[in-house]
């Protein structure tokens, strides 16, 4: 039975491996099933996803030791 998917321990020639990589390059924003592989999230949307208040970095300039002191 022939499958279009590469199976575990299936030997591939160099040209077959290169063909797979070229196909992946053509569809860099989708997995092989057509689903998106990434999406952009703004800092505001990320905060909303985690129900956080607007991020305010906290920096203690007087800290001079290690975290175990």
Structural class: mainly alpha
**Computed CA radius of gyration, to the nearest angstrom:** 23 Å
Largest sheet: none
Bulk shape: elongated
Termini separation: 65 Å
Helix share bin: 25-40%
Low-confidence stretches: none
Number of helices: 2
Beta strand %: under 5%
- The number of E-state strands comes to 0
Order of helix and strand elements from N to C terminus: HH
Keywords for this entry:
mainly alpha; 29% helix
Description:
The protein is mostly helical and 69 residues long. The chain is built from two helices and no strands. It is elongated. The N and C termini lie far apart (65 Å).
Brief characterization of the structure:
With 69 residues, the chain is an all-alpha fold. The protein contains 2 helices and no strands. The longest helix is centred in the N-terminal third of the chain and has 13 residues, at 14-26.
């Amino acid at each position: 039975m022939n499958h279009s998917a590469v199976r575990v321990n299936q030997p591939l020639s160099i040209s077959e491996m290169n063909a797979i990589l070229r196909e992946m390059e053509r569809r860099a924003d989708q997995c092989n099933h057509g689903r998106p592989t990434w999406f952009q999230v703004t800092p505001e949307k990320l905060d909303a996803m985690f129900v956080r208040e607007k991020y305010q970095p906290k920096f203690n300039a007087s800290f001079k030791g290690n975290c175990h002191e």
